[in-house]
Design brief:
Layout: H1 2-16, E1 18-20, E2 27-29, H2 34-51, H3 58-81, E3 94-98, E4 105-108, E5 112-116, H4 126-141, H5 144-157, H6 160-163, H7 171-181, H8 195-211, H9 217-231, H10 237-240, H11 247-261
Parallel strand pairs: 3-5
Antiparallel strand pairs: 1-2, 4-5
The chain binds zinc ion (ZN).
Length: about 260
């Protein structure tokens, strides 16, 4: 009977912690509160930014800020026009270009965008930069971090986590954020996203960049360059954003939908 009640409570908690992803509508389990995710990831972000050096290249920095602001505005427009304005308060945007030859970029929960100088070599236009940023922002909007933290919590703490670890500013949540981001470490290696999250971020990113006025077709050319680079043993970006041969095909499938939002 006890076990049955336990199972019942667990099921209830899981049901109550279900969410759904904007735009795609996919159901997801989110065990950590928005505020908790923001607090934990902000700590990681602050630590990272303390160790990072900002780029001295003003032109490229301006490009990152310019495109970033447009993507942020488009994302908020999307949320507002789809009855999700309550999500906007979770974003406090920041756009950074940092000194590093690594081919990488990320967006932390809360809209903290970091682009590495190394990835700018692969950027031929604002449209292509918008493809990266749209994709990264999509990970944040879709709460993929929360989902990953939830999965890690379940793996490491089991069912106990459902009742205790998530309440308050628990050390479990802080630890898990450290595991997911690893930003305190020298290389700032994040846990790779799953392919499911990658495809979802591609889909949403296309829409956000199109609303911002960038040509979504640039996402195809950008990811093609990344895929070619992988063969030569390059991008770190591909290790945190795992891909497969079907990625470009999938991207193309979403293009007609994205092009509806794109007004030149
Ligand atoms: Zn990704």
């Amino acid at each position: 009977m006890k076990r049955f009640i336990g199972l019942f409570v667990t099921t209830l908690l899981l049901l109550s912690s279900c969410g759904s992803v904007p735009l795609t509508g996919r159901r997801q389990v989110l065990l950590v509160g928005d505020q908790e995710v923001l607090t934990a990831s902000l700590t990681q972000y602050d630590n990272y930014m303390k160790s990072a050096k900002r780029s001295a290249n003003q032109t490229m920095t301006n490009q990152v800020v310019r495109v970033g602001k447009n993507i942020a505005a488009a994302t908020e427009t999307y949320l507002r026009t789809n009855g999700l304005e309550s999500e906007i308060k979770n974003f406090s945007w920041e756009f950074n270009l940092v000194q590093s030859a690594d081919v990488n970029a990320f967006c932390m929960p809360g809209g903290k965008i970091v682009v590495y100088e190394g990835i700018m070599k692969y950027i031929a236009s604002d449209d292509e930069l918008a493809a990266i940023m749209g994709h990264e922002v999509a990970h944040a909007v879709a709460k993929h971090s929360n989902e990953r933290m939830s999965q890690q919590l379940m793996t490491e703490y089991g069912a106990a986590v459902l009742g205790t670890a998530i309440s308050g500013t628990s050390s479990a949540v802080q630890n898990i954020a450290g595991t997911v981001y690893g930003l305190g470490t020298q290389y700032g290696i994040m846990l790779p996203y799953s392919r499911k999250h990658e495809y979802e971020a591609d889909h949403m990113g296309l829409i956000f960049m199109a609303i911002a006025g960038y040509n979504p077709q640039a996402a195809v050319s950008f990811w093609q360059k990344m895929a070619q680079g992988k063969e030569g043993g390059i991008p770190e970006f591909m290790s945190t954003h795992p891909s497969d041969v079907n990625r470009i095909t999938e991207l193309r499938k979403y293009l007609p939908e994205a092009l509806k939002y794109y007004k030149k």
